[in-house]
Amino acid sequence: GDSARDPFITGRIGRQRRYACARALLADVKTIRRTLGGTVNDVVLAAISSGFRQLLLGRGEQPRPHMVPSLVPVSMRAPGEEDIYENRLTAIIANLPVHVANPIDRLTAVRTELATLKASGEAMVGEAMISLGRYTPFLLTSAAARIAYGLPQREIVTVTTNVPGPREPLYGMGRRLVEIIPYVPIAATLRTGIAIFSYCGRLTFGITGDYAANPDLDVLARGIETGIAELLAAAASISANGPEPR
């Protein structure tokens, strides 16, 4: 994952930025989770892995294991504590399985990676993020990014932060807030950052990229949406026909 081996996805950045957005329905993500297993975060990371896979393939790069390490804030809540925000977050550095072509296998790889890291106690940032429950959602994305910049940059290609937002519509001056699109800053050698925000049953993926290094940032965004669509189709097929022999 260093800039010598992967010049396209990590390396020096300039002052200008590109921004792209991907969208998904939270109900679709939950359908995938119920049918294929894992958590909402696992499904989201599998979709992001799909996006980076498409980005690399589009650039003529062969996706490999350990090619896209990401700083990932994760929930350490026990079952039944999903709505508790205080002192339940930490962060790990997880390798996104961009080398896995099959969408179900990709989700399984994400689940295995995160479960292994959490079970082994290898929270790479540990106490630095354990109090992030006190942050507002927008400060959370910035805090995650700031912590990432303090880590050895050769170990991180991207930052992905998943922040739950309001479930009910918000209004301002009598107008309904239609959509919230998040933003995460980048710095040092982090050429891309992805913030995921949920609002009123929808997920938005806000993707920040270095301008010169990411002329095709929309490929990453569409690859995320494709990743969700592929998993949803696989879930529907299993629901209708049962799992295929592998």
Describe this structure as you would to a colleague.
The strands form two sheets. The protein has a six-stranded mixed sheet, sandwiched between helices. It has helices at residues 26-36, 40-58, 103-120, 137-149, 217-241, and strands at residues 17-25, 69-75, 89-95, 158-164, 171-172, 175-176, 192-199, 202-210. Mean pLDDT is 81; it is low at 1-7, 81-87 and 125-139. The chain starts with 16 loop residues before the first strand and ends in a 5-residue tail after the last helix. The chain is built from five helices and eight strands. Helix 1 crosses helix 2 (40-58) and helix 2 (40-58) crosses helix 3 (103-120).
Topology diagram in text:
Elements: E1 17-25, H1 26-36, H2 40-58, E2 69-75, E3 89-95, H3 103-120, H4 137-149, E4 158-164, E5 171-172, E6 175-176, E7 192-199, E8 202-210, H5 217-241
Parallel strand pairs: 2-4, 4-7
Antiparallel strand pairs: 1-8, 2-3, 5-6, 7-8
Helix pairs in contact: 1-2, 1-5, 2-3, 2-5
Summarize this structure briefly.
It contains 5 helices and 8 strands; from the N terminus they run βααββααβββββα. It has helices at 26-36, 40-58, 103-120, 137-149, 217-241; strands at residues 17-25, 69-75, 89-95, 158-164, 171-172, 175-176, 192-199, 202-210.
List keywords for this structure.
single chain; 246 residues; alpha/beta; 6-stranded mixed beta sheet; two-stranded antiparallel ribbon; 8 strands; disordered N terminus
- Uncertain segments are 1-7, 81-87, 125-139
Given helix and strand content, the structural type is alpha/beta
What's the gyration radius in Å? 17 Å
Helix content: 25-40%
Output mean pLDDT: 81
Report the count of strand segments.
8
Number of helices: 5
Q: Distance N terminus to C terminus?
A: 31 Å
Question: Judging from the principal axes of the Cα atoms, what is the shape?
Answer: globular
How much beta, percentage-wise? 15-25%
Instruction: Give the H and E element order.
Output: EHHEEHHEEEEEH
